[in-house]
Amino acid sequence: MPMMNRRLLMLGAAALTTKAVAPWRASMAQTPAGPFTLPPLPYAPNANEAAIDAMTMEIHHARHHGAQVAGLNTAVQNQPQLAAMQLDELLMRLSQVPEAIRTAVRNNGGGHANHSMFWEIMGGQGGEPAGDLKAAIDRDLGGMEKFRTDFNAGGMRVFGSGWVFVTVTPAGALAITTRPGQDTPLMDGARVLMGNDVWEHAYYLRYQNRRADYLASWWNVLNWEKIAARYAAARDGTLRV
Fold it and tell me: What's the structural domain count of the chain?
């Protein structure tokens, strides 16, 4: 069976399973207990219909993110020192994680951090930011139009699966960067202001192979108040993932 057909079959099966329970809470009951937990969606799955369909949101959150939380808990279950760490601290110290579980922590911990940020910054009406965040975008990224163009171009350059991010320094400086797989700038000691998931499971049901259309639509569901709060937290030294 071709790879894409197998993927769609798995997504469909996951969707049917998810709908047996309250959809966006299903994985909360099914994820094994551990130090890391799956955050609930801060809105209903259909809140991002302007860019992402409800079924994709349900599958993405409950199954993909839920599996990463479970995988991370399994990886650290016999490592009490690692299990006691905050997620960002664990990822920033990835080189100190025992080699036997390092890949599992990298993939699942990175995915947990990336997706936790991803859900937080959506659920809005798009538009543009204001205040200090807008000033930083104008200063560092050339204004909103150039920012959107460069960010989307970064997302298109990701080969296969990965993410496009905006990093933020304690001084408030912004930069666009990309990472493969579930890697995160946290692994390099950088904080993440915002980012978009360009794995196929994030958009395939609606857009198929039209990643550019997904990237363009995604701006319509951003919650700039949440992103501005992350910006303020980064400057205050309180931003985690």
Answer: 1
